[in-house]
Amino acid sequence: MRIARWCAPAALAAGVLLSSTSAQAAFPNFSDCPRSAPNIVTCLDVQSRSGSLTIKGFTVPIGESFEIRGGVESTASGELRLVAPAGTTGIFSKPIQVPGGLLGINFPIPGNAVTATAELAGVPSQVKVNVTTLSIRVPLKMRLSNPLIGPNCHIGSNSSPVNLNLITGTTAPPAPNTPISGRIGTFSEPEFGVVIFTGNRNVDNSFSVPGATSCGLGLGLIDQLVNAKLKLPSAGGNNTMIVDSDVAQGLPF
């Protein structure tokens, strides 16, 4: 059951929290697990239920916006990494509302509303699982959407991602953050070959967040507005990611 145990935290992270198809399908969903890929040891489905991303005191709720789905392969070095379903990144998310929008005002002002969508910053093989520590490392970027921001506004990028190390243990962050703890959820085995962990919590409060790029047109003025709103860039020790999720693992045949 060792594989099953790492799935709880791993799944979570990988996540936090990323592609563009809608999250939260039927659970568990192994329908597009890449079973024919070499060295697949398990099919994985992780669906967020609640949680938050906090940057220097500004909090964005995650809710049921995020899913990690696919297979997990074992490499020659013993590393475990995500293999995405065909045509996807293996990370599925839907937009979430940024509280206060561009202006920091929770009021329906035209052009103020902003949504954020998590995306994988790189390729699925960069999503790594540590079986010993039950952690998952995943590089992310966040796409912000608003008529003034344009279609390419991101916090983080493939070359400068938000590098998350989401664990179910206790963190050791730089100041001013203090340690927080995750947990492995309640185990069940609803049918042969399928194990589920309900109520997992994965956490990280050591990561840094880069400034916004490619927002709006010309002079970087919208970049500056987004950075001012979210207090970016933000060094490690000022940010926190908490993801509560349900995780399922199934035999890959």
Task: Write down the overall geometry.
Answer: globular
Helix count? 2
In the predicted model, the low-confidence regions spanning at least 5 consecutive residues are: 1-22
Helical fraction equals under 10%
Q: Please state the structural category.
A: mainly beta
* Integer count of domains: 1
Number of strands: 15
Largest sheet: 15 strands, antiparallel
Can you give the mean pLDDT?
83
Distance, first to last CA? 17 Å
C-alpha-based Rg, rounded: 18 Å
Listing every helix as H and every strand as E from the N terminus to the C terminus, the arrangement reads: HEEEEEEEEEEEEEEHE
Give the DSSP E fraction (strand runs of 2 or more residues).
Answer: 35-45%
Short description:
With 253 residues, the protein is mainly beta.
Task: Name the descriptors.
single chain, 253 residues, mainly beta, 15-stranded antiparallel β-sheet, 2 helices, 15 strands, disordered N terminus
Q: Layout of helices and strands, plus pairs?
A:
Layout (H helix, E strand, L loop, with lengths): L1 H12 L26 E16 L2 E4 L4 E9 L5 E4 L7 E3 L2 E2 L17 E6 L7 E3 L4 E11 L8 E2 L6 E6 L18 E6 L2 E11 L7 E2 L7 H10 L8 E12 L3
